[in-house]
Amino acid sequence: MIQKTSTLVGLATLSLLCFLVSVNMRTKNDSPSYEKKVIAAELMQDAMSTLKSARMEAGVFMDIENDPNETGLVGSSFSLITTDEGDLDAKLTTLDPNFSAAMVDLMNQVGLGEGDTVALLLTGSMPGANIAALTACSALGLVPVTITSVSALGDDEVRLRVNLNVGNGSGQAWGCDLTEEYVVFNSAYTT
């Protein structure tokens, strides 16, 4: 019995010694873009708070069932930046300010640096992703050129103004509204 107790005490002492060594040997390794990630997340949080305040002042209903964080960016369509529920889990993921930090990490991985120009395709379906991308660009000092998807407004013509800071010019683009009815109707064709 004494021999078994001494073995247990020896193992406990060895375990405690290993624990103390591991605690004292640990190192903290921050990501190279850690500071920029924090800035991006804070910018996104501020932007979402500003949007929420503006929506509340305007008396816009907050859909607490579909928008548990009460961001005001998920629910029934109220504006060009708010869309219907869609894929709720994806929308809620993009509304976390840490999503902006993740975008900073991705932009850092591809080698984007301060002053670089990037094209961003923004969509009314994912307002959180739009805010995350723009705040990530701001945190990294990138120059975003935005291409915006415009919802079906019922107008035959939509005018957009884009400032690329490269002089004056104009252009014309054609597009179509690929609604579900359009896709279903055209899927009936066979060749």
Order of helices and strands: HHHHEHEH
Biggest pleated-sheet summary = 2 strands, parallel
Strand order of the largest sheet: 1-2
Rg over CA atoms: 26 Å
Beta percentage is 5-15%
Counting DSSP H or I runs of 4 or more residues, the number of helices is: 6
List how many beta strands DSSP finds.
2
Tell me the span between the first and last alpha carbons: 86 Å
Helix/strand structural class:
mainly alpha
Helix content: 40-55%
Low-confidence stretches: none
Residue-averaged pLDDT: 78
Shape estimate: elongated
Structural overview:
- This protein is mainly α.
- The chain has a domain of 133 residues.
- The chain has a two-stranded parallel sheet.
Topology:
Blueprint: H1 2-25, H2 34-57, H3 88-94, H4 98-109, E1 117-122, H5 127-140, E2 143-148, H6 180-186
Parallel strand pairs: 1-2
Helix pairs in contact: 2-4, 2-5, 3-5, 4-5
